[in-house]
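Take a record.
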Amino acid sequence: MTKRLRILLLGAGLAAIVAAGALFGHLGRKPAPVPFAGLQEKKEQASEKADRLVAEILKRPLFTEGRRPPQPKIVKAEPPRLQGRLAGVMLRPNSRIALFTRPGGRPVSIKEGDIIDGWTAAKIEEGQVVLTSSFGQQIVKPTNGGAEELTPGRRPVKKSAPAKNQPAKPGQNQTPAQKSQQLAGGAATTGQK
């Protein structure tokens, strides 16, 4: 059996050598020379074809719905919005300060050149503040605040109402007509007109 195995291995080795010789002989042959001008033309044609294919792929993206490129979103820039209001202006020989209040928050004081909500305080004058940004200029004047500007912890004072089941004091909760009758009646009893 070992003789048979040796013969079989020898035959397989010879077959491998013959196959390798044939393969190297085929690869070793030089192809017919191609003219250089023709090769250059083929490269240019291939390059143009590749450019057309790339342009077509970009026009119709594979992974988008309808194979259309997404439309760019145009965002219109808006000027910054001033949060709160101008509560007042303080003018001193050495400094000018503007006081801005914010709904439910603490007041903010700024000097000329400071920035508030995207606006720069260009001038602080009596009765107004000139604010500037890349969108232009805005003049802000002091205004009265509303109930939403109350800071937490400070509550409005309520007037006390009379206790229930208590008689009202004379003259309390009277209409103007009742008050004038009472005054006229009091004048008649004293003899005065």
Notes: The helical segments are 2-28, 36-59, 176-190. The mean pLDDT is 76.
